[in-house]
Amino acid sequence: MKELVEYIAKNLADNPDAVVVTEENTEEGIIVKLQVAEEDKGRIIGKQGRIAQAMRTIIRVKAAKAGLRANVEIL
Asked: How far is CA 46 from CA 6, 61, 66, 74, in A?
C-alpha cells in the first residue's frame, strides 16, 4: 500500500523528491503517512479534499481485499 500512495503522490507533486511515505502498523490496522513539500499539499489534497478522499478510498479497498484496515494521513 505504501508503494501505491507513493506512486500517486509523486505523479501529482511538482517536487516528487520531497514525497515521503511511511507505513505504521497499529492495533486498528495500517496507517500510511504521506509527507509532501508545503507547496504540494494543495495538489495532493485537491479541491474540497477530493484527491485525498480518492486516495483513501483506493487504499481502503486494497486493504479490505487483503482482510486488513488501512487509512492515509497527509502530514
From this structure: 16, 20, 28, 12
Chain centre distance of CA 4: 8
Measure CA 67 to chain center. Answer: 19
Each residue's pLDDT tens digit, 17-37: 999 999 999 998 999 999 999
- CA-CA distance, 23 to 27, in Å (whole number)? 13
Global confidence as pTM? 0.85
Among residues 14, 17, 18, 4, which one has the least CA distance to residue 54?
4
Please give the mean pLDDT across all residues of the chain.
92
Contacts of 53 (CB under 8 A, 6+ apart): 46
Q: 42 is written with which cell numbers?
A: 494543495
